[in-house]
Amino acid sequence: MKKYLLLFAIFIVANISGQRFCGTDEKMKDFFSNNPDALAKKQDLRNYLTSKNNVGKNVQTVVTIPVVVHVLYKNAAQNISDAQIESQLAVLNADFRKLNSDYNTIVPAAFKPFGADMELVFCLATKKSDGSTTTGIERKSVASSFSFPNNYYQSSGLVAWDPTKYLNIWVGDMPNPYLGWAYLPDAAGYAFDGLAIGYNYFGTTGAAQYPYNGGRTATHEIGHYFGLLHPWGEDGSLCGDLDNDDGCADTPAISDPHYGGNVFPDNSYMCVPTANGAMFMNFMDYVTDTEMAFFTNDQKTIKTNTMAGPRASLLNTNACSFLAVNDLEKAGSINLFPNPTTQYISIASPLVRINEVEIFNSEGRLMKKVSVKNETDKIDVNDFAAGVYYVRTYNGTEFIKSMKFIKK
Ligand SMILES: [Zn+2]
C-alpha cells in the first residue's frame, strides 16, 4: 500500500511539473475494449499501415485536410480567439510540410536524412456537408460543471461534423495530466473520431501557455490521427517486444518518453544504445513544444497508407480552400474543359497561376499528378475508365480549387 501511495505522490508531482501527457493510448484501450470488431482487425490494420509494399506508397502527394474546430468554453479565457485557432493552423501547415523554421536548429545533422515532408495541408472548412458556408469554427458556452473529457462530442458538447469528411478538433477545459488526445485510424468514422486538446495547449497566441504554446500538441495528436504511435509503443517499457513497436525502423526504439532538456546524443531510455542515441526531438515523443521538430520517412509511410486506406474519404471532400473572400473571383474564373471528355482535359485560369494538377478517381486514389506550364496544356485522360474524377489544382504548395469531370 505504501508503494502505491508513493507512486501516486510521484504522479502528482509529475503533473505539477507540467510534463507532456497524451491520452491517446488510454482512449484507444477503452475504444478497443468497447469495440471487439475493431480489436479483431487491429493487427491487420497495423500490418497494412506499416507496409512499404502496398498501393499507398504511390499516393505520395499533397493532400488538403478540412478542419472544424469546436470550442467548448466555461469562461472568456477558454473561448479562444479566431486568431489563436488560425495560429494553430499555421503551425500545422509548417510542421506537416517540413517548413517549420526550427527544423534546422532542432534536428541534428545525423537525423536529417530521415526528415520527411508529410505532404499534408490543413485548412478551416469553408463548406458544411449541406453545402452552406462556414468559418470552420463553432463555439458553445457550457456550465462550469461540464466534463469536457467525457462529453465533448456528445450533444451536451458539440457533435462531430461528418468525421469521414472533416478532421474534428474539440478544444476545451482539459484536466491534468492531459494536454490532449486523438483517435487512431482504427476509430475512423466514429462519433468521437478526431482530436481533443486543452484550450491552453492550442496555437501559439491568446490563452496558449508556455511551454506548450508552440502548437505542437496538435501536431503530435494529428500524427496519431494518421496512425503514428509513440516511439515507445503502446504500452511502454517493453524493449524487445516487436508487437509493441511503433512500426518505424527509422525511429530508434525507446522504453519511455523524453520530457525535455535532453542534449544530442542522448541514450536515455534507448533499448539498444547507439552513437546518435534517441530521437527525442521527434514530434511523437513528449518533449516541450520548442524541442520537437520533425517526422521521419517511415512515419510518412504510415500516414500515406492511412490516407490511401482508412482515411481515404478525406481526399474528395472539397470542404475548404485557402482562398480569402477577395480571391473567390479568381477561383470562380477557373474552368476545366471539355467536360464531359473522352481524351483530355485542360484548365483555364486567367487570374491565378496553376502549376500542378492532381486527378483522383471516385475511390480517392491518385490517378495522375502533372505539372502544368501553360493553361492550354492538355492533360491526357484517354486511358481512364469511364466515370467521375476529381481534380485538385495547386499554385506551388498552395491548394487553389477542386473540380470534377466525367470521363466517357
Ligand atoms: Zn501521443
What is the CATH superfamily classification of the largest domain? Collagenase (Catalytic Domain)
Number of domains: 2
The unique ligands bound to this protein are: zinc ion
- List how many beta strands DSSP finds: 13
Low-pLDDT residue intervals, each spanning 5 or more residues? 1-16, 322-326
CATH topology of the largest domain: Collagenase (Catalytic Domain)
Percent of residues in beta strands: 15-25%
Structure description:
The structure is a single chain. With 408 residues, the chain is of the alpha/beta class. The protein folds into two domains: 21-308, Collagenase (Catalytic Domain); 332-407, Immunoglobulin-like (Sandwich). Helices cover 22% and strands 18% of the residues. The protein contains nine helices and 13 strands. The protein has helices at 2-16, 24-34, 36-50, 82-95, 103-106, 148-151, 216-225, 297-308, 328-332, and strands at residues 63-73, 120-124, 137-141, 167-172, 180-182, 195-198, 335-337, 344-348, 356-361, 366-371, 379-380, 387-395, 398-407. Strands 1, 2, 3, 4, 5 and 6 form a six-stranded mixed β-sheet that branches. Strands 10-9-12-13 form a four-stranded antiparallel β-sheet, with no helix packed on it. Helix 2 packs across helix 3. The longest helix has 15 residues, at 2-16. The chain is globular. Zinc ion (ZN) binds at residues 22, 24, 220, 224, 230.
In brief:
This protein has helices spanning 2-16, 24-34, 36-50, 82-95, 103-106, 148-151, 216-225, 297-308, 328-332, and strands at residues 63-73, 120-124, 137-141, 167-172, 180-182, 195-198, 335-337, 344-348, 356-361, 366-371, 379-380, 387-395, 398-407.
